[in-house]
């Protein structure tokens, strides 16, 4: 199939997005042709603005349009607790819960020697600096339950344990509200390992 | 369970084949290169959705055809279950009871088979890698948690090796990250080792009496899982972990020199002792073959335990390689217990009563026909 150059460029651009293959990209591109010019302009401006105006918070590393970010500036939040997550998306997931009133620290990845990612390549040095004054009393490690996420959590806890700051790891196991019979074997076995006394 | 009917369309050398099998012993007789093994392979593929001979599914489709199909009617405890596997250049589709299965993992296990072919001798004679693969496949068949642990183990090891590689040639390494990955590595390694110990013990339990029977009570088979010298099956997980950690510390400098992890389940082995001697080193060809056969027959028992039904036994070209006594003992053991398909070039040399009573199929040049002894 041969497309005119502008449209094949557009298709190529859509294909750079995650989860978009050639067919979806073509469908999106042709849809753009049918859109009103205003809407298209607004759309392209939104793309550019998102990239230009958003930066990472200098304190916690979360995406923000003001520095420090709204969460770090919020005086009503509990500054003695810091929740460490891998990605900005994880902050948004935690915030949806509306139950956690502490602060965050976004690592932007996990330690993976295989991929050449060491502790200095993710936001760990900043975390350590942040913990130097006495405000923070508990660090909650909420990295993903993968090999790398687990190793990153263990690494951080070893570094900060000597300072006497409490370090905790979020639990993993069965999803709430689900039936036991629908859980896969691996999750069930992890849940069994993490059982606790009642 | 047993296979009642098998239909092949455009499979290997068969354009079209329809066969019904007896629930006891079925003997496929034919000259070399007539398509006996293709029938065995088709049943194996129907069960496992992949071949034991090739990883390329296209080879299974008859030359020049666009797609191939294997259909089977499997008699199970609760009735007859139709299975269907369509092979095409785009991939394969599996149907159970005419319903397409989204995941092959839901399909596999509807029909259980145990296959014994000449190449299974590698289990005894081959490198430790072959035996570790055997362990992983067999345990994996019944435990998804094991498969998951195995995947995680290899991932942790790759991470740990990456750190070793990055520091290759140095003397000494103090790195918190390395300690963290070593801890995780030890944890995963011990999980694998414990599962393998458990499995080897079950295997031993079933294989020992079988082997004694086949060898006229003359040979005692002992199967052991060999891991680090000072790790024993009766130790607690913590104790095992401490031993492995100790060993790794002792190896630290060599690991740094070589840039790889030098102790763990990826270097373990399964050993077979016959009357106290390692059959891989000191056993005769016949002894090795018998040990491999005992192992496969033990697998039947294991599957029976796990699923509550006997699997189908496929014996490809093995009868002629056993002496008379071993042959008749083998046939006696399986008679009336397990549906068996046997291939052979002729039955004249096999005088055993069981074979005389068995259903015979003559295989030649891409066809197979049922024939009776009375003819």
TrEMBL record, chain A:
<dbReference type="GO" id="GO:0008270">
    <property type="term" value="F:zinc ion binding"/>
</dbReference>
<comment type="function">
    <text>May play a role in DNA repair. It seems to be involved in an RecBC-independent recombinational process of DNA repair. It may act with RecF and RecO.</text>
</comment>
<dbReference type="Pfam" id="PF21175">
    <property type="entry name" value="RecR_C"/>
</dbReference>
<keyword id="KW-0479">Metal-binding</keyword>
<keyword id="KW-0227">DNA damage</keyword>
<dbReference type="InterPro" id="IPR000093">
    <property type="entry name" value="DNA_Rcmb_RecR"/>
</dbReference>
<dbReference type="Pfam" id="PF02132">
    <property type="entry name" value="RecR_ZnF"/>
</dbReference>
<protein>
    <recommendedName>
        <fullName>Recombination protein RecR</fullName>
    </recommendedName>
</protein>
<dbReference type="InterPro" id="IPR023627">
    <property type="entry name" value="Rcmb_RecR"/>
</dbReference>
<feature type="domain" description="Toprim">
    <location>
        <begin position="80"/>
        <end position="175"/>
    </location>
</feature>
<keyword id="KW-0862">Zinc</keyword>
<dbReference type="GO" id="GO:0006310">
    <property type="term" value="P:DNA recombination"/>
</dbReference>
<dbReference type="GO" id="GO:0003677">
    <property type="term" value="F:DNA binding"/>
</dbReference>
<keyword id="KW-0234">DNA repair</keyword>
<dbReference type="InterPro" id="IPR006171">
    <property type="entry name" value="TOPRIM_dom"/>
</dbReference>
<dbReference type="InterPro" id="IPR034137">
    <property type="entry name" value="TOPRIM_RecR"/>
</dbReference>
<feature type="zinc finger region" description="C4-type">
    <location>
        <begin position="57"/>
        <end position="72"/>
    </location>
</feature>
<dbReference type="InterPro" id="IPR015967">
    <property type="entry name" value="Rcmb_RecR_Znf"/>
</dbReference>
<dbReference type="GO" id="GO:0006281">
    <property type="term" value="P:DNA repair"/>
</dbReference>
<keyword id="KW-0233">DNA recombination</keyword>
<dbReference type="Pfam" id="PF21176">
    <property type="entry name" value="RecR_HhH"/>
</dbReference>
<dbReference type="Pfam" id="PF13662">
    <property type="entry name" value="Toprim_4"/>
</dbReference>
UniProtKB/TrEMBL annotation, chain B:
<keyword id="KW-0742">SOS response</keyword>
<comment type="function">
    <text>The RecF protein is involved in DNA metabolism; it is required for DNA replication and normal SOS inducibility. RecF binds preferentially to single-stranded, linear DNA. It also seems to bind ATP.</text>
</comment>
<dbReference type="Pfam" id="PF02463">
    <property type="entry name" value="SMC_N"/>
</dbReference>
<dbReference type="GO" id="GO:0003697">
    <property type="term" value="F:single-stranded DNA binding"/>
</dbReference>
<keyword id="KW-0238">DNA-binding</keyword>
<dbReference type="GO" id="GO:0006260">
    <property type="term" value="P:DNA replication"/>
</dbReference>
<dbReference type="InterPro" id="IPR001238">
    <property type="entry name" value="DNA-binding_RecF"/>
</dbReference>
<feature type="domain" description="RecF/RecN/SMC N-terminal">
    <location>
        <begin position="2"/>
        <end position="348"/>
    </location>
</feature>
<dbReference type="InterPro" id="IPR018078">
    <property type="entry name" value="DNA-binding_RecF_CS"/>
</dbReference>
<keyword id="KW-0234">DNA repair</keyword>
<dbReference type="GO" id="GO:0009432">
    <property type="term" value="P:SOS response"/>
</dbReference>
<dbReference type="GO" id="GO:0005524">
    <property type="term" value="F:ATP binding"/>
</dbReference>
<keyword id="KW-0067">ATP-binding</keyword>
<keyword id="KW-0235">DNA replication</keyword>
<feature type="binding site">
    <location>
        <begin position="30"/>
        <end position="37"/>
    </location>
    <ligand>
        <name>ATP</name>
    </ligand>
</feature>
<dbReference type="GO" id="GO:0006302">
    <property type="term" value="P:double-strand break repair"/>
</dbReference>
<keyword id="KW-0227">DNA damage</keyword>
<keyword id="KW-0547">Nucleotide-binding</keyword>
<protein>
    <recommendedName>
        <fullName>DNA replication and repair protein RecF</fullName>
    </recommendedName>
</protein>
<keyword id="KW-0963">Cytoplasm</keyword>
<dbReference type="InterPro" id="IPR042174">
    <property type="entry name" value="RecF_2"/>
</dbReference>
<dbReference type="GO" id="GO:0005737">
    <property type="term" value="C:cytoplasm"/>
</dbReference>
């Amino acid at each position: 199939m041969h497309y005119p150059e502008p449209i094949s460029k557009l298709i190529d651009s859509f294909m750079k997005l995650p989860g978009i293959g050639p067919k979806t990209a073509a469908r999106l591109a042709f849809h753009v042709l049918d859109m009103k010019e205003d809407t298209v302009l607004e759309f392209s401006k939104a793309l550019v603005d998102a990239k230009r105006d958003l930066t990472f918070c200098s304190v916690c590393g979360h995406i923000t349009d003001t520095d420090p970010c709204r969460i770090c500036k919020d005086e009503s939040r509990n500054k003695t607790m810091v929740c460490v997550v891998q990605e900005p998306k994880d902050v948004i997931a935690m915030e949806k819960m509306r139950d956690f009133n502490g602060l965050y620290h976004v690592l932007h990845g996990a330690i993976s020697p295989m991929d050449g990612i060491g502790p200095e390549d993710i936001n760990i040095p900043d975390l350590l600096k942040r913990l130097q004054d006495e405000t923070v009393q508990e660090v909650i490690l909420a990295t993903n339950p993968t090999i790398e996420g687990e190793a990153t959590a263990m690494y951080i806890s070893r570094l900060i344990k000597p300072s006497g700051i409490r370090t905790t790891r979020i639990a993993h196991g069965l999803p709430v509200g689900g039936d036991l019979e629908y859980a896969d074997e691996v999750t069930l076995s992890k849940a069994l390992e993490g059982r606790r006394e009642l | 369970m047993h296979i009642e009917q098998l239909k092949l369309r455009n499979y290997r050398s068969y354009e079209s084949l329809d066969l019904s099998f007896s629930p006891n012993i079925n003997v496929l007789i034919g000259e070399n290169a007539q398509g006996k093994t293709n029938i065995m392979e088709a049943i194996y593929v129907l069960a496992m959705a992949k071949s034991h001979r090739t990883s390329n599914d296209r080879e299974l489709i008859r030359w020049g055809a666009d797609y191939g199909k294997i259909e089977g009617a499997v008699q199970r405890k609760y009735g007859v279950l139709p299975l269907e596997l369509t092979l095409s250049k785009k991939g394969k589709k599996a149907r159970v009871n005419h319903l397409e299965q989204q995941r092959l993992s839901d399909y596999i296990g509807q029909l259980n088979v145990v296959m014994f072919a000449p190449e299974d001798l590698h289990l005894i004679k081959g490198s430790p890698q072959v035996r570790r693969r055997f362990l992983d496949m067999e345990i994996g068949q019944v435990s998804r948690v094991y498969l998951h642990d195995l995947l995680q183990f290899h991932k942790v090891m790759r991470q740990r090796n990456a750190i070793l590689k990055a520091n290759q040639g140095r003397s000494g390494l103090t790195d918190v990250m390395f300690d963290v990955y070593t801890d995780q590595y030890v944890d995963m390694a011990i999980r694998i080792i414990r599962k393998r110990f458990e499995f080897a013990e079950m295997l031993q339990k079933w294989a020992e009496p079988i082997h004694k029977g086949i060898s006229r009570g003359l040979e005692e088979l002992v199967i052991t899982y060999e891991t680090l010298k000072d790790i024993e099956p009766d130790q607690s997980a913590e104790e095992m972990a401490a031993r492995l950690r100790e060993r790794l510390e002792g190896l630290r400098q060599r690991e740094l020199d070589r840039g790889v992890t030098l102790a763990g389940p990826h270097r373990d082995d399964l050993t077979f002792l016959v009357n106290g001697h390692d059959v891989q080193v000191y056993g005769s060809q016949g002894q090795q073959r018998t040990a491999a056969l005992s192992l496969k027959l033990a697998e039947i028992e294991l599957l029976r335990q796990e699923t509550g039904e006997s699997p189908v036994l496929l014996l490809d070209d093995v009868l002629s390689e056993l002496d008379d006594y071993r042959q008749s003992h083998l046939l006696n053991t399986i008679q009336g217990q397990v549906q068996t398909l046997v291939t052979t070039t002729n039955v004249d040399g096999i005088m055993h009563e069981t074979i005389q009573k068995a259903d015979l199929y003559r295989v030649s040049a891409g066809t197979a026909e049922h024939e009776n002894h009375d003819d």
